[in-house]
Design a protein that fits this description.
Elements (H helix, E strand, L loop, with lengths): L1 E3 L5 H11 L5 E3 L2 H17 L1 H14 L11 H16 L4 E6 L3 E8 L2 E9 L3 H12 L10 E9 L2 E12 L2 E10 L14 H11 L12
Parallel strand pairs: 1-2
Antiparallel strand pairs: 3-4, 3-8, 4-5, 6-7, 7-8
Helix pairs in contact: 2-4, 3-4, 4-5
Length: 218
């Protein structure tokens, strides 16, 4: 049994039956009820993140579908979905997928600092790139030119706009995803570490209708 906001959506039903490898019984659920369920599932996803990724990598490597054609395969969909969901749970601002000779590294930028999260076999890299391109409505068969796109992602009731940059490198295409939360707010000057006097001076001056404020640094 599966709860859905639209039990008549045949595309979703077909995908779920492929993923679960069996017939399902759809039930109608409200958006609020689903968001509560997604929130609980998100906590489990965080706890089992690496195991979920490793299990789906094994499934993908056993699959007969390879490369760009695997963009809609269930294991690849699950890998990309979990990478994004886990990044959101850590409040990461960016996801970097960097490709090397024998493996790819997934890094998250948290509070301005890049952290290595995961290393996965290079064999699944083309399919992961194709999946992200598909979501971003980019050209899947273009591998030699940079591409930029975006898509919207929903997790536990939170809607996130994701900007995507794909860049060809020596060993393959590198992906950077910028996560833009609709609920995010800019930090105040004091939250950035300014002293009260400095923050007040800057606040007073940026409200003036004349002059210029320059932001500089090393």
């Amino acid at each position: 049994s599966v709860a859905l906001e639209d039990p008549n959506n045949l595309v979703d039903l077909e995908f779920l039956e492929r993923y679960l490898k069996g017939r399902i019984v759809p039930y109608l659920a409200s958006e609020n009820s689903l968001n509560i369920g997604f929130s609980l599932y998100g906590k489990t996803t965080v706890q089992n993140f690496k195991k979920v990724i490793e299990d789906n990598i094994r499934l993908s490597l056993r699959s007969k579908t390879k490369g760009d054609e695997a963009a809609e395969d269930v294991p690849i969909v699950a890998i990309v979905d979990n990478v994004i969901s886990y990044a959101l749970s850590l409040r990461a601002s960016d996801i970097h997928t960097e490709v090397f000779k024998d493996y790819i590294i997934i890094r998250y930028r948290v509070d301005g600092v890049l952290h290595e999260i995961l290393r996965i076999p290079k064999e699944v890299h083309p399919a992961i790139v194709a999946r992200v391109k598909l979501l971003s409505e980019l050209k899947i068969d273009e591998h030699s030119k940079p591409q930029d796109g975006r898509f919207r992602y929903q997790s536990a009731g939170v809607i996130v706009d994701i900007r995507v940059s794909v860049m060809p490198t020596f060993y393959g295409e590198k992906i950077v995803m910028r996560l833009l939360r609709s609920t995010a707010r800019p930090l105040s000057f004091r939250e950035l570490g300014m002293l009260d006097d400095t923050a007040k001076f800057l606040e007073d001056n940026i409200k003036k209708s004349y002059g210029m404020v320059l932001v500089t640094g090393p």
